[in-house]
Write a structure and sequence with these properties.
seven-stranded mixed β-sheet, 13 strands, mainly beta
Length: 174
């Protein structure tokens, strides 16, 4: 996008290099795209915060009832890896579940869902689920993209359902 063409530019009189820019860039997408972007000194992109003091954010709704409420006839949330070359085992996206209660095991990520490339050419991705305490999560379950096999306690399941409680235990499978 070009932050200097059209749209609205808001800047601080004491620091004019810091700007909030919004507008429509006709070079993006089929019909153009609307944008809002924080910019510093022309090319340095700044984070854009929505409701940093609290409140809900709605996309497609004027009355969001959760922190992020996406409404539509068939809403889709996309997490897209922008790399053009992805190797086997590459994490292509992740959803983290983070806690801020430091009275027990501390704050941080206590669970995640990963999309992990399952081939050297990026031709599929497994889903892996991790759980634990902040700073010490481990993979507990994986769904393979190529076979549909599910492993619990196993990262490379050989059967439709492959179970292993811990190393040395008897494996169970279907």
């Amino acid at each position: 996008y070009n932050s200097e063409i059209g749209g609205i530019i808001i800047s601080d009189a004491t620091t004019p290099a810091k700007k909030l820019v919004s507008g429509i860039d006709t070079s993006l997408g089929t019909y153009g795209s609307g944008y809002i972007q924080g910019v510093y000194s022309g090319t340095n992109i700044l984070p854009l915060l929505l409701n940093p003091m609290g409140g809900n954010v709605g996309i497609g709704t004027t009355s969001p009832d959760t922190l992020l409420n996406i409404e539509g006839s068939s809403p889709i949330l996309t997490i897209e890896d922008s790399r053009v070359s992805i190797g086997d085992g590459t994490i292509m996206g992740r959803i983290d579940f983070k806690q801020n209660d430091n009275s027990g095991s501390g704050t941080g990520v206590s669970g995640s869902i990963y999309s992990i490339s399952s081939s050297a050419t990026g031709q599929g991705s497994d889903l892996a689920f991790t759980t634990g305490v902040p700073g010490s999560t481990t993979e507990k379950m994986r769904i393979q993209s190529t076979t549909g096999n599910v492993g619990i306690g196993v990262t490379d399941p050989d059967y439709t359902l492959h179970l292993l409680k811990s190393s040395g235990d008897t494996e169970m499978y279907i």
